[in-house]
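JOB MANIFEST
job_type = single_chain_structure
chain_count = 1
residues = 249
[input]
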Amino acid sequence: MKNISNKAASDKLIFALDADNYEDALSWVELLSGHVGMFKVGKELFTAVGPKIIESIKKKGQRVFLDLKFYDIPNTVARAAEVAVRLNVDMFNVHASGGSQMIKETVSAVWDCADKLGTARPILLAVTVLTSLNNSDLAEIGFQKNTKELVLHLAKLAYSAGASGVVASAQDIALLRENLDEKFIIVTPGIRSANATTKDDQKRTLSAYKAVKTGADYIVVGRPIRAAKDPLEACHQIVQEIAEGLAAK
């Protein structure tokens, strides 16, 4: 059995800052700094607060995943991504369904911008299929492929276009690991503790232990920590599951 440090395990945990105001978001940052590897700033929080929450997180020496899922014409997404680089985010994402040209132009713009600023290149992820969607949902939208087929198709597209990795359901990790370079990063949302019993709008979930053991590089957790009676204890439980998953690989 491998000896996995708490730091190595916690670095793989991204906490979803799904708050609608600055004070609430910052209170979570203060509570969980040093216990998680990164804080995810999504659409709700960024729309309510703007870039200052990113600045505040970075001032505390913490890492940021800007989860805005850029999706537009290539030039528009590339310009938005350059702004993300200037905000000094560590990770951000685009929708893979925007196409290879959109991803290629964004990758080029991001790398050039980071190099000119002398900053580290952020992890650029492509979102494959949202974890709230299943086969029936895809059929309703008009896709001919099922979730696994579409995830793999979009992941290969993103890989060829130069993305750092993908955002994908835990249930798709094994498929991606079998078909893509092991260095291609997989970030997995919709993670629940192994002890969770509550159901919500996430349809394709997995436990932290199983996700990491299967090959996820990072996992995103929000509600299982945020809604817990003791959020810090819930966080530590998930970190322990990550450590056990790493040790079992």
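[summary]
The radius of gyration is 17 Å.
The CA atoms of residues 74 and 102 lie 4 Å apart.
exit_status = 0
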